[in-house]
Amino acid sequence: MDWTSVQLRSLVELRRRGTVTAAAAALGYTAGAISQQLSALERAAGVPLLRRVGRRVELTDAGLAFAGHAQQILDIEAAATAALERSAGRVAGELQMALFATAAAEILPVMLARVAHRHPDLVVRSRELVVDDVYDVVASGTVDLAVGLEYPDVPIRRDPSLRVMPLHRERFALAAPSGSLPPGPVSLAGTGAPLGWILPPENTHYGLAIRTVCRRAGIEPVLRHEVVDTAVSLALVEAGIGLSTVTGLMLRLRPSRFDVLPLVETFERHIVAVVRSSAEHRPNVAAVLQVLRELQLEPVGGQGGQKLGGVDEVLEVGDSGVQRG
């Protein structure tokens, strides 16, 4: 039987996510491309793996059984790749990487420069993703490594095949229009009318995390604008539209003028590296992980950024242009 890794991943992701559309999103393909991969795999297997139910497709019993073996084949393939890289004794070839937007803007350029200097034969190819999707693309094998986020207040459900390594911790502060609140530490319980909130949707991890912290403080944030783009949120705060929460890394996305006030409540996020457990010790992956561990992000405006691990070097960034409370 002749099949490809992409075909096997398509089958595994269809079992995991339930729809071709969701599988395609996790793998970074169109739904049509995944349908073609599944059809080719079915022809190679010689037995029906899919059946149509209304407008959807679902796995047959044979498809379900094969999906379990497909995951084992992919794991063996990853282990074989790691063994070949280790036997070669050098860091070379390609590494596929995913990052969320803020990391892509602030971490990626420095990281790529250091990787190129230390390992000139290694080519890193990156893609920017919505932060909530980075775990999925690593688990599916679409990328080798990702930089993502975790919120202690709303832990993300982890795939058991993943290894998550903390790199940096940031504490959130309150972003408020200039002069709208007294200077100094502020409690979320003291924020409210007439200012409303500029927040991401509640079905995102960040959106759920800030609402969880607000509710723990005894308030339900009054939503004025639902925004997923951090730079847009900062622009709206600067324009006096409402309140939001920010970290030092977020403040570097857009030079802005507004007050940044420390929060009495603890609200944090952790920047993490995500790899498949089977790929963690591959020379290429280990080399990039080492560089990521060495990057220390300087806090902006007393944001309380803190590295979670040993550090030898500092990631230098420019001034954010933010007015601090």
UniProtKB/TrEMBL annotation:
Q: Which residues form the HTH lysR-type domain?
A: 1-60
- GO MF annotation: an example: DNA binding
Pfam families per the UniProt record, alphabetical: HTH_1 (PF00126), LysR_substrate (PF03466)
SUPFAM superfamilies on file? Periplasmic binding protein-like II, Winged helix' DNA-binding domain
Record-linked PROSITE patterns: HTH_LYSR
- The source's domain of life comes to Bacteria
Q: Which Gene3D superfamilies match?
A: Periplasmic binding protein-like II, Winged helix-like DNA-binding domain superfamily/Winged helix DNA-binding domain
GO CC annotations, alphabetized: protein-DNA complex
Q: What are the entry keywords?
A: DNA-binding, Transcription, Transcription regulation
Q: Which family does it belong to?
A: Belongs to the LysR transcriptional regulatory family.
**Protein's name according to its UniProt entry:** LysR family transcriptional regulator
- Whose protein is this, by species? Actinoplanes xinjiangensis
What are the top taxonomic ranks of the organism?
A: Bacteria, Bacillati, Actinomycetota, Actinomycetes, Micromonosporales
